[in-house]
Amino acid sequence: MRERVHGWGAADHGRGLRTGVAVALAATAVLGGVGAAVAPATAVPAVAERQARAGLPQPTGPYAVGTTALRLVDRGRPDPWQPERARELMISLWYPATRPAHGDERARYMEPPAAEHFGGPDGAGVFNYRTDPGRTDWSGVRTHALRDAPALPATRPRPVVLYSAGLGDPRTWGTGLVEDLVSRGYLVVTVDHPYDASEVAFPDGRLATSVLPTLAGQPGLDIGALLRKALATRVADTRFVLDELAALRTDRRLPAALAGSLDLDRIGMVGHSAGGFTAAQAMHDDPRIKAGVNLDGQLHFPGPDGTGVQLSSVAEEGLDRPFLLMGTQSEDSGDYRGQPGWAAFWQHTRGWKADVTLLGSRHGSYTDAQSLLPQLARQGAVPEEAVRGDVGDVRPERAVLATRAYVGSFLDRWLRGHDDHLLDGPSSRFPEMRFES
């Protein structure tokens, strides 16, 4: 991992709260207290033969994939969750590379300490996706990327896409979509939000784990206030990453040819659940983001007493730039008419907009859960009913194909000027994707 330090200056899962704090509430009984949430990494035990294994779907584009990780520190901002510390983040840059990775060259999906926590009793693999603790070899999952590979030179800098995962999920949980976008020529930046994400592994061996389950279990909790704080932190993180990307264009510590590959005049953002809310709100607050995609994330908060709703400013005011809503058939989801925040956003948005719903899907269908969980279920590492609750009964390969196609079509149209007309209306290519109007 490389490092960059910013200088001084400047309900249960799939239901109810689409931002995912309901997951933290439901998880409190499972997790108990998470403590201060910063702990030294522990030794990872040898992988037992009985552990389940799974693989990510192959990228479909013509380019090989490279990746590199960076630590960023915002010295001018105390961490909202740990105010005695400056805010620090981990990001990964994913980019077209000069050659593909083979075998064990392929970068790990998760670093071993993070993988152990994710799949353990206190991790998001259990409390978000109901996998059996310790039954999956998460550190053995490989991406299709070559770590720190030289970037493939381009005649023009590449459009940049930020990716934000759902509340409690690590930045890796959308790798299947991210790698496919890179294979089609995008440069993607995945962002971890420490103390929100289940765990974040730092280069010095620290593992920052989520504080949200502990906070969600406090008596008299104002869940709306916790949600607003989480979203504000995520938006501030996103804007800080954008600031840092400008400086990274001249950073010689990056893999060869990568620094010159970032086109910061063509920035998009994609997020799932709380990450989708983050994408919309960050786009509202920061004009550098030109286009955005919300994968089944609410755009409102619960009211002060836990009932009713409070609209976000992006829902109340809308956007003047292109935005895509992608809903699922989870309870309180679906099209824009089924969510108060989406309905307000639809009414107030002046820019181009579209809304599609994946039939037979559930809240996890737009994430790596869609491809990984069915594989794990076949090996007994997650109950079949949990898989159906998380990803529904849509065929996994069709869900993956549809997600890639619609996100890619949207970004191509608004960041590259290439329109395949998939988002003009219903498509016979994807009968499982309902187009809303």
UniProtKB/TrEMBL annotation:
Keyword terms of this UniProt record: Hydrolase, Lipid degradation, Lipid metabolism
SUPFAM superfamilies attached to this UniProt entry: alpha/beta-Hydrolases (SSF53474)
One example GO MF annotation: hydrolase activity
Species: Kitasatospora misakiensis
Alphabetical list of Pfam families matching this protein: PAF-AH_p_II
Domain of life: Bacteria
Name of this chain's protein: Alpha/beta hydrolase family protein
